[in-house]
Design brief:
mainly alpha, two-stranded antiparallel sheet, two-stranded parallel sheet, 6 helices, 4 strands, globular
């Protein structure tokens, strides 16, 4: 329904078994008890009307927890967000937090950050076209940040957008 883990709720959850789905997948949809934000609906395209016949999260939580219990590895893109939202749903359902301490958690987003660093120096080289001197001095970093943002706006076609939209 949105991104606020205290208020918003999960409306769709999918688990895929295996990297290419060779073990199948399972998708659940849930009827939330809060209204969906227009921004969230614009992102995923699911309306409250689409969920009217779906069970609430608490009605199927045991089934979902059984799937997690069998998993040795959890993979998800920016998965910390998903885990936080799931933990909030468990709390609302009166359940203890999911213990993932025995699971391997793989996040392609974090892997990407590690394999292709995202420091200011790297961003400057990518979006401005050159390294910059005196990295980590406040003056140099502030000037480099301005140049990087200008380069990003150009690279992503955002020059004509207002600050609110960016």
């Amino acid at each position: 329904t949105g991104t606020d883990r205290k208020r918003d709720q999960i409306i769709e959850l999918c688990m895929q078994f295996g990297m290419d789905g060779e073990g199948g997948q399972k998708t659940w949809r849930f009827l939330p008890t809060v209204e969906m934000s227009p921004g969230a609906q614009a992102v995923h395209g699911i309306s409250m009307a689409d969920l009217k016949d779906c069970p609430p999260f608490a009605a199927v939580v045991d089934e979902i927890l059984q799937v997690f219990a069998q998993a040795g590895v959890i993979v998800g893109y920016n998965v910390a967000f998903d885990i936080d939202m799931f933990q909030s749903e468990l709390e609302r359902a009166g359940r203890p937090p999911l213990d993932i301490s025995t699971k391997l958690v793989i996040d392609p987003f974090r892997l990407w950050q590690q394999c292709e660093p995202r420091s200011l120096q790297h961003a400057h080289k990518r979006f401005v076209g050159a390294a910059f001197e005196s990295a980590h001095s406040a003056t140099a970093d502030v000037a480099a940040t301005g140049r990087v943002l200008s380069g990003m706006l150009a690279a992503f076609g955002l020059q004509e957008k207002g600050w609110e939209e960016v």
